[in-house]
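Sample entry (153 residues):
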Amino acid sequence: MNLIPATPGSLERREMEPVKVLVYGFLEYQKGYGLSPVTSKRNGYLLQKFFRWLGDKDTREIDRTVIYHYSEYLKKAKSRITGKPVSPETRKLEMSVIKGFFDYLIRQEKILVHPMEGMKIKTGRRKTIRKVFAEKDICIFLDSIPINTPEKQ
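Predicted structure, serialized as tokens:
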């Protein structure tokens, strides 16, 4: 996979580092601002997963449409461990890592166009049922609290 270098005034295509080198640079960059080794390893895995899905597609061909298709793929994906659908929080994490990678490439002037520029990463939040205590349970709890009044001390 090749990238277009962000050389001002240059329209010619030049060979860039392979994706593995760019990912390594990104992970080293993240370590530089205090990311834990475990988080860095996870981010590396998520980027490898994205580029495996991408296949032989040239990195210069990554645009909003490609990102959208990957997002749709994640919505249908199942966890390798549990076999259950990937949670919205996990999908958001994966997309955030990919966006961070492209942010890095822009900062390092490796690409001219950020395919996720201005994109908001949304999750289909799960609605959780709030557990509310019954009045009886609240009364039992409040009655169990000892009250020290001046007469009882």
